[in-house]
Fold:
Amino acid sequence: MPQQRIESPAFFIGKGTDDSDLISFGSGQPDLPPPPSVYKVLEHFRSFKYGLVQGTESLRAALAKEYPYAEPEDFVITNGASEAIDLTLRAIAKDALGSKVLLPRPYYYSYPHNVVLTGMVPVYTDLQKGKIDFEAFARDVAGCRAVIINSPSNPTGTVQEIEMLKKIEELCEEKGIYIVSDEVYKDFIYVRGNYLLHGEKVVTVNSFSKTYAMCGLRVGYIYTKNREIIDTAVEMKSHTSMNTSLVGQAMALAALGERDSYVAEHAKIWKERRDFMYRGMQALRLDVWEPEGAFFIMPKFKNAHRAMHDLHYNHRIITYSGEWFGAPERLRFSYALNVEEIEEGLRRVKKFLETEYKTY
Ligand SMILES: Cc1ncc(COP(=O)(O)O)c(C=O)c1O
Structure:
């Protein structure tokens, strides 16, 4: 097979689903089914007209019950967290083109692109084994208009300490800096409950993609008490994508109805996978930190980008190059796979470590 150089995650997206011999540690999407009630929506669904740009009242009212002191008007329902991030950043960039946005590095690979597309400029603060160093953060955030916090993090799998999040909240409030808190993995925390960042300039972004395994339905949301952000986001959305899919929103509402039992049942499965993956990587003597949330682990590799190619072309394993996340010395493995596949994948990684990796 000719070996094409792999430049971006787009090379792998969608691969692996129809090829049972390929082990994909690539994609960041849950392999488990969504809550059963989601399937029942279609039978009765009959709304084919345009809907409210801000999102259906029923879904916003149900979401408001999930957050303390929230009101339905504090939400905008979006095409996944992706559109929520884009609208939020564009609202923040309004009348402030060229402003700086701080990204803790390693970062989710879309963030730098999201920032650039708004006309703002990404700047970085380096994480230490996935954790924020407050002194560095305080230095690097000076002069920024916004910061994106992603805890639990894709790609590091780390969760920031609650004390750290409170210090960040306080500092940003004092300096008038927006915090965009991307909490798409908030229901995948193995070490504590979630801590919801709050404040006048805090914008929470979330979606139904990960918690409810509904990535393809494209339903997410913005939640904030900041009226200006909500109004600007709705105004922009009314000229771009308009309402988010109504059937998607109806399915999201059905999923919310099963939230407690679904999340509790799945938390056990994800923790078991996390433990299995972490122990497996330790047994291979790879340099990793223990993942505390989400479903990613980031081992260090010599010549990591080449290792990604060899793992793919010679061992039929998909991993994502750390280069895409601002961590060129590492690879990202997603463990959104059943334990048998993880086991087989680790067996192949072992083979790779014992063969061509030795010559690196
Ligand atoms: C950190 C993070 N934010 C946002 C997204 C986008 O999620 P959605 O499918 O809701 O657009 C992802 C998807 O992988 C993610 O990992």
Q: What stands out?
A: DSSP finds eleven helices and twelve strands in the chain. The mean pLDDT is 96. The two ends are 22 Å apart (CA to CA).
